[in-house]
Design goal:
This protein is mainly alpha-helical. It is built from 11 helices and 2 strands; from the N terminus they run αααββαααααααα. β1 and β2 form a beta hairpin. α5 packs across α7 and α6 packs antiparallel against α10.
């Protein structure tokens, strides 16, 4: 089966993006010229240019007339881009990066839950309840615990009625796939506490924003404390 141009472009973006984040290109090994990359991936210039354009939009590359394409410093990378965050997490497991992400969650998720309590439609409340039921099913081995947990957090963001919060769902999905495994490991359990998540849903259903905020804050603070504990242990081993 032939690979679509879109899939091929995404494959190139992923390979080059991961290579850039891992530091394979730099002063001693500059980013390859267009012709070399076309030969490396066996693609046309149009496909390669689209991939470079996507990496540029993520802040990893900069193209200048007559100067070619160069790798941007890390502070220029778009950390809110799910691909960039995933590459960073794949590059080297970083508790510091997870801590930064969890601090973003502390700022966003409790407020999103409070907004959801007063703004969520019946359909959005049903989506949160469905995710919660999936988490309960996961306790019985009838669903995926990680996917159902992420679905709950994403459903709350989408129910906030804030378009910016809603657009964070891909970022949350990407980072939670790492952080949930870590926090559950440090709690000594394989599953999230469904009752604690249920308190968030109950408050949203009851249209009680302060209770929703408090319940959500508890969830994220617990994750933040577990990550901080893991960082302290890692530093103690050095």
């Amino acid at each position: 089966m032939a690979v679509s141009t879109q899939s091929l472009t995404q494959q190139i973006v992923n390979e080059l993006g991961l290579a850039i984040v891992r530091g394979q290109y730099g002063a001693e090994n500059p980013f390859p010229i267009e012709a070399a990359l076309c030969e490396q991936f066996g693609v046309s210039r149009s496909v390669l240019r689209e991939a470079v354009k996507m990496l540029t939009s993520k802040g990893l590359l900069r193209a200048r007339p007559r100067q070619g394409t160069s790798v941007q410093p890390e502070e220029s990378w778009n950390l809110l881009d799910p691909d960039v965050l995933r590459w960073l997490l794949e590059r080297k497991f970083s508790l510091d990066l997870l801590n930064d992400f969890t601090e973003v969650r502390l700022a966003v998720e409790p407020q999103a839950a409070a907004f959801a309590a007063v703004r969520a439609s019946d359909e959005q409340k049903a989506a949160i309840e469905h995710a919660l039921n999936r988490m309960r099913a996961a306790e019985q081995g009838d669903d995926d615990p990680l996917v159902s947990d992420i679905a709950f957090h994403v459903a709350v963001l989408e129910a906030s009625g804030n378009r910016f919060f809603g657009q964070l769902k891909d970022l949350v999905d990407t980072a939670l796939r790492i952080s949930i495994r870590l926090t559950n490991q440090y709690k000594g359990v394989a599953l999230a506490n469904v009752d604690d998540h249920g308190k968030v849903y109950d408050a949203i259903k009851a249209a009680d924003p302060e209770r929703a905020r408090t319940a959500s804050l508890y969830l994220v603070k617990e994750a933040n404390e577990l990550i901080a504990r893991a960082r302290d242990r890692m530093k103690g081993k050095k």
